[in-house]
Amino acid sequence: TGHITLDPGYGNTGSCESAITFIDGERGILRYRGIPIEQFEQAPNFVEVAWLLIFGHLPSADEYKAFADNLTACANLDESMKHHFEGFPRSAPPMAILSAMINALSCFHPELFELEDADRFRVAAAGLISKIRTIAAYAYRHSVGQPYIYPNPALRYVPNFLHMMFSQPYAEHLCDPIVRDAINLVLLLHADHEQNCSTSTVRMVGSSQANLFASCAAGVCALWGPLHGGANAAVLDMLEQIHQGQISPEEYVRLAKDKDSKVRLMGFGHRVYKNFDPRAKMLGKVAERLLPTLGYKDPLLDIARKLEEIALEDPYFVERKLYPNVDFYSGIIMRAIGIPTNMFTVMFAIGRLPGWIAHWWEQAQTQGSRIARPRQIYVGPGVTDHVPRDARS
Ligand code: CMC
User: What protein family is recorded (predicted)?
Assistant: First the structure.
């Protein structure tokens, strides 16, 4: 084991070359295929970003239309997939349902497994990006005991998602353009972030040549944890605790600094960003704009601002270069739109899916890419004799 370098959490190990996303953590820069994310703010369009990440360039008008039509065409789930939802308890975490159902797509679309076939990949990618919405919305409808709403072919990506989430069978949900743009921006700001935990997981599973659906189902599981995508729901829980008077913002920050407490300031800190997270900046601005426009006053936004203010002046956070990350404000935006807390991480998954697909495909296309197989440094006992069970003390 002498030649193996230990790098816990892979803080300094490059696992691949990638042309998809560039991050400069010191300067707070994030670019998709070279384009700074701030440039997507004016007319946010998640579907266009998905195309860009996966296929490497902005779609032409024809490419965009074909892709959007493709998304519309494959929005429905196989009818028999609906029975699977019934098997889950009402209280099932939507992330568990999401990963199970994405994996189940492997059973329904085995024709899309071909690794080398670009046309099939395109169909599989569109199918997955479209169906994750339907699965997410059905997971929600199941949890609240309401009938599933079929996708409406007249609606585009985000309005169709909101329709499946919130429409009553007799009255269609109307999508305010302000809400549509806010969700497009939330989704596209989550769309890729190079070798984060879930994307690395997708690549690792894909490196064994497992199919796209199985690899992305694994990505959902990796995203679930509170140190990764689960942080957006954990931020809301933290803000609620403070709002309900269980703890003050000052006391929360004090606890977060105390290593024995195991409490962290959720939505703060990042492995790569050591200056600021550009996504958090943009989402903070959206929250400020969106809430008054919707006529929605949220005391949690004030609490978030207060926590940010305290932490950014505290030497503990300053010395460790801990800033608000993407999860700090996204929950407040989703809450204002009516998305329940247990769906926040599902929204992150919908957003991150194009990134997972892009990385899976990039890896599959890379000549000479190898199965991911990290090494370890063994620290267990030396040679030890087996003792028969009845002779053990
Ligand atoms: N609150 C209090 N202390 C923190 C925090 C925090 N949120 N984040 C890091 N630290 C401390 C940590 O205790 C350590 O201190 P010391 O040097 O004294 O031991 C130092 O800062 C470095 O932290 P680390 O744990 O070595 O950093 P990491 O790169 O391994 O972890 C992180 C990154 C994002 C997991 C971590 O900052 C964290 O747990 N943040 C809270 C959870 C969160 O918001 N996650 C979302 C991340 S962004 C989107 C995503 O990936 O999903």
Answer: Belongs to the citrate synthase family.
* pLDDT by residue, tens only, the chain of 393 residues: 568 999 999 999 999 999 999 999 999 999 999 999 999 999 999 999 999 999 999 999 999 999 999 999 999 999 999 999 999 999 999 999 999 999 999 898 877 666 667 888 888 999 999 999 999 999 999 999 999 999 999 999 999 999 999 999 877 887 899 999 999 999 999 999 999 999 999 999 999 999 999 999 999 999 999 999 999 999 999 999 999 999 999 999 999 999 999 999 999 999 999 989 999 999 999 999 999 999 989 999 999 999 999 999 999 999 999 999 999 999 999 999 999 999 999 999 999 999 999 999 999 999 999 999 999 999 999 999 999 999 998
List the 21-24 sheet strands across, edge first. Answer: 21-24, 29-32, 35-36
Residue 236: both structure tokens together = 């809301």
CA of 6 to the centre of ligand 1 (A): 20
**Phi/psi zone of residue 138: left (φ > 0), alpha (ψ -120 to 50 degrees), beta?**
alpha
Nearest atom, ligand 1, residue 277 CA: 48
What is the distance of C-alpha 308 from the center of its chain? 23
Of 220, 325, 328, 345, best ligand 1 pocket probe by most atoms within 8 Å of the beta carbon:
325
- Residue 229 CA: which ligand 1 atom is closest? 52
Start-end of H helices in 207-298? 212-224, 231-243, 249-257, 278-293
Question: One of 190, 193, 270, 359 is an active-site residue; which one?
Answer: 270
Q: Is 327 a catalytic residue?
A: yes
- Is 270 part of the annotated catalytic residue set? yes
In the block, which residue shows the tokens 């803080």? 11
User: How far apart are the CA of 197 and the centre of ligand 1, in A?
Assistant: 14
